[in-house]
């Protein structure tokens, strides 16, 4: 579906192609029959958020300025997924915000906050909310941004959307205690307008976030805490694995970089 500048919605297809259009794209269309049209061109994108594995790429959203990673104490979340979202956001110069939802569930939230504290220390905002009660604390973080909600199923993304835009009426699902996971209730991305200059995209839950599209030589730039050390190594082509005189490894040994984050970087190099 395409929304025109007049606020009308049209069911459109891409001329000569079956895909390639992302939620958030700005396009030029040609109306055909009432309520339908053809996408003639896609305007240049400022950013493109997508994931990839060895076989295919999956576009998530275009032209966004902020990724909001939603996690919760229940069900448990994947720290690997958080890291992968942060890496791809850094590569696209997209701002990142981590939301710890269901903050009213006290003990699981406390444990989750401890796990997330290292990300807060390196500069990523961490916001605790209980979306079923109020999302007012989130509103200043959305102002002026084109945001996308990302995270696993069951973390409360659709609940956040419903609290922000009650008329959205996004379906929400129950949590499987046996599987410690949420049910997939959002099946497609959808763009919502909070106000004239603030917009948000709800996306389906993701369990994996492949980064095959990022070349190994560029991976280190996906780690914000590495930035001040890149270029300070003894060798210009240092991969920050075990090379002598590596500034990143030295900073890790001195406690300036988390050893867990460095280990995750190493895992990505051998993905």
Overview of this protein structure:
The chain is an alpha/beta fold. It contains six helices and 14 strands. It has helices spanning 79-91, 106-121, 139-142, 157-164, 247-253, 259-269, and strands at 2-3, 9-14, 27-31, 36-42, 48-52, 57-62, 66-72, 95-101, 126-128, 146-150, 175-176, 181-182, 190-195, 198-202. It has a six-stranded mixed β-sheet with strand order 9-8-7-10-14-13, with helices on both faces. Strand 13 and strand 14 form a beta hairpin.
Topology:
Layout lengths: L1 E2 L5 E6 L12 E5 L4 E7 L5 E5 L4 E6 L3 E7 L6 H13 L3 E7 L4 H16 L4 E3 L10 H4 L3 E5 L6 H8 L10 E2 L4 E2 L7 E6 L2 E5 L44 H7 L5 H11 L2
The overall pLDDT, averaged over residues, is: 88
Residue share in helix: 10-25%
Largest sheet: 6 strands, mixed
- Write down how many β-strands occur, each being a DSSP E stretch of 2 or more residues: 14
Shape, principal axes of CA atoms: globular
Identify the strand order in the major beta sheet. 9-8-7-10-14-13
Q: Which structural class do you get from the secondary structure elements?
A: alpha/beta
Uncertain segments: 173-187
Computed over alpha carbons, the radius of gyration is 20 Å
Q: What is the helix tally?
A: 6
Task: Please give the alpha-carbon distance between the first and last residues.
Answer: 36 Å
Percent of residues in β-strands? 25-35%
């Amino acid at each position: 579906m395409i929304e025109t500048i007049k606020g009308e919605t049209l069911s459109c297809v891409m001329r000569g192609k079956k895909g390639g259009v992302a939620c958030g794209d700005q396009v030029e269309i040609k109306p055909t029959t009432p309520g339908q049209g053809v996408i003639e061109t896609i305007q240049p994108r400022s950013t493109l958020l997508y994931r990839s594995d060895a076989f295919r790429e999956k576009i998530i959203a275009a032209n966004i300025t902020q990724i909001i990673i939603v996690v919760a104490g229940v069900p448990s979340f994947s720290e690997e997924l958080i890291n992968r979202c942060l890496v791809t956001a850094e590569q696209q110069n997209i701002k990142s915000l981590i939301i710890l939802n269901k903050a009213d569930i006290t003990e699981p939230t406390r444990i989750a906050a401890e796990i997330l504290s290292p990300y807060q220390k390196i500069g990523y905002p961490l916001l605790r909310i209980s979306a079923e009660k109020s999302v007012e604390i989130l509103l200043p973080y959305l102002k002026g941004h084109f945001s996308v909600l990302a995270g696993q199923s069951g973390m409360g993304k659709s609940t956040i959307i419903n609290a922000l835009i009650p008329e959205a009426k996004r379906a929400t699902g129950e949590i499987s205690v046996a599987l410690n996971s949420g049910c997939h209730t959002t099946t497609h991305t959808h763009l919502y307008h909070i106000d004239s200059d603030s917009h948000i995209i709800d996306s389906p839950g993701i369990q994996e976030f492949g980064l095959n599209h990022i070349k190994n030589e560029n991976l280190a730039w996906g780690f914000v805490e590495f930035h001040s050390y890149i270029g300070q190594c003894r060798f210009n082509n240092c991969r920050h694995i075990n090379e002598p005189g590596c500034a990143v490894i030295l900073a890790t040994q001195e406690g300036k970089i988390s050893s867990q984050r460095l280990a995750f970087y190493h895992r990505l190099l051998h993905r």
